[in-house]
Amino acid sequence: MVARTDPSALRWLIGAELSRYRRDVPMSLSELAAATGIGKPKLGHMESGRYQQFPDDIATVLRTCGADGPAIERLTSLATRSDAKTWWAPWANVMPGWFKTYVGLEGLAEGAFVFESMVIPGLLQTEEYAQALTIGTGFVRPDHAERFVSFRQTRARRLTEDEPLTLHAVIGEAALRLRVNGDQTRRDQLAHLVTMSELPNVTVQVIRPEDGPHPATPIGKFVVLEFGKVRPIAYTELLDGAMYVQDPDSVRTYSMVAENLRQVALSPADSRAMIRELAGLA
User: Fold this and answer.
1) Cα distance between residue 135 and residue 153, in whole Å
2) pTM of the prediction?
3) Which of 148, 167, 201, 259 has the most CB atoms around its CB within 10 Å?
4) What is the DSSP letter of 121?
5) 89-278 carries CATH number 1.10.287
6) 229-258, pLDDT tens digit by residue?
7) Is residue 95 within 8 Å of residue 148, measured between CB atoms?
8) Torsion (CA) 249, 255, 259, 260 in degrees, nearest 10
9) Angle CA 41–43–47, to nearest 5
10) Of the CATH numbers 3.30.420.40, 1.10.1760.20, 1.10.260.40, 1.10.357.10, which one belongs to the domain with range 7-79?
């Protein structure tokens, strides 16, 4: 598991897994309460991740739902880490509440697939680009913009830590051409994107209009996060919130779309050459 921790995100992940096992049986919360001797309200809180889940309770629930030994071990081991500090706490007041869960999950993930059609993904942004985009989109209050950019830069270090996130990004050509705070900011951003794409844990592909239609055309943006001890989840943003996809079949659909994008987009080498040319580096 990676170095960054977030107790609220850990609780969320554990709760999502507990809910999946219960529904796979299937059992209602009332039925599970009767079978385990754990109160229905407590079970509900365990699944929502609202409060800390204890290893003994997790093991009891999983055994009742027919989980095997390895599954019980991986989830109970996660629960023992929930006393860690939230890494993004210094920036808590500049982030929308719905985004805090995502950055916590991102910090716990081992791998991520990101599709962005209109802007450079946050983990790959320069400081100047991030600041101009933050101000231009109104994502946070103007007086919080500088601190939010600081948060984004700290978040981006996830790609260069000792145990870095493995990132595969597919970016729409429109994002490369988007004029953000003038041409120099855009060129500097593209040069940075080239540099990041050369990291061994980062893959960048560009998808162009001439590459044809693809399943992600109506989506605009989505992320699939991979974890070492729990099943993957998908994430997509709305105008004023986010949607977390946990159902295995639905997550599998997002993963299939991600694979299609990898096949349709330019190869990593051709993508890097295109970005270099647009940045004036060719």
Assistant:
1) 16
2) 0.78
3) 167
4) -
5) no
6) 788 999 998 767 788 888 888 999 999 999
7) yes
8) 60
9) 115
10) 1.10.260.40
